[in-house]
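Internal ticket - ligand job 386, adenosine-5'-diphosphate:
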Amino acid sequence: MKEWTDRPAPAAKTVSEARLMSVLNTAVDGIIVIDEHAHILVYNNACEKLFGYTAAEVLGQNVKVIMPRDYSDAHDRYMDNYKRTGHRKIIGIGREVRGRHKDGTEFPVELSVGEASTPDGRQFIGILRDLRSRKEAEQRVNELQADLVHLARVSAMDEMGAALAHELNQPLTAIMLYMQGIARTLDKRDDPADAQFKTVLAKAVHEAERAGNIISRMRQFVEKREPHRRPIDLNAVVNEAVELTIVGMRARVNIERDFAQQLPKAFVEPVQIQQIVVNLLRNASEALKDREDGTIFVSTRQDGAFVTIIVEDNGPGIPPAAMPTLFKAFSTTKKTGMGLGLSISRSIAQNHSGDLIVDPGGHGRGARFIVQLPVASREEETDAGL
Ligand code: ADP
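stdout (structure tokens):
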């Protein structure tokens, strides 16, 4: 077995081998060559940085030394299997794997493997790229996006509203307890003359409960939580978003709902979907603020592999000048608008493998927004234990 390394040049090494090794050592990516028995023949400088072992420490060793322990047995099996059957799991394909540093830490690497037949037998060449910085950047982008989504949610609801919700919760609970106390006393007294009081009291308790529900929905909406996608009944989620928006609406606008019966579940993060619906409803109600008969139509439908939410209004439609940049961040026609609502809404929908599309209306027709979200697959439903 030949070993290539660029330090203290062994006598056996030819000039061309030394030249090749110096080329390999200038590569930014790790390069490893192994023989049919997985013994390391080449291990360039980039690998030394990546794995912490020097070439002298690993040359001639089984390549398992730089693999996580739980993977190294599988690697022997892959090699055997490939030699027997020629069945390729990674050769010529490349994939993301984990590497193990000398100090035991594991990290993601992108590995592409090629094969060469040489006078010394079959050899495999692996090129390894450290994925840590790319992964960290991806994670950071995800975090920033989550923060942005959260920021928009808080501003939509207004911090004032959140504080109010918090403050109102306690007196509301107290009112409910007092009323329930009176209801119990009346029940015990069992006087037919109380019948009317009891009915009124039941109504009052019901209204207080309703107010409590609105407050707890507001608090849930503003709360910062880890996004968690699961199979969801969109009708309920959309309905809650409508209720939530009605509370915050200044102008008196009619909202008509038409939810499809037997709608399949969608695989989504419900709070993010509510954010889309709240954004669309707020935009629609702002477009309707000068109209007496302003109406928003909210409906759900199944459309092939998608469940769709449609929000339509009878306002003036989208101004044609606003159309080209409608879904771009910071494009707004409003004095106080941030121009983020539609851009965030579309990226949420697209992150869910769906989309947000618009029919701008105009000429007597209002704008119509369609949110497309994927129907939950059977596996997703099963995985969620449903
Ligand atoms: P913002 O509401 O802060 O302006 P959006 O991204 O939510 O940001 O909306 C961008 C623009 O799209 C609005 O300024 C408005 O001109 C237009 N728009 C959105 N929805 C409607 C609608 N239902 N009817 C008319 N115009 C709309």
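Auto-summary: Confidence is low (pLDDT under 50) at residues 1-11. The pocket of adenosine-5'-diphosphate is lined by residues 279, 283-284, 287, 313, 315, 317-319, 322, 326, 332-334, 337-343, 367 (CB under 6 Å).
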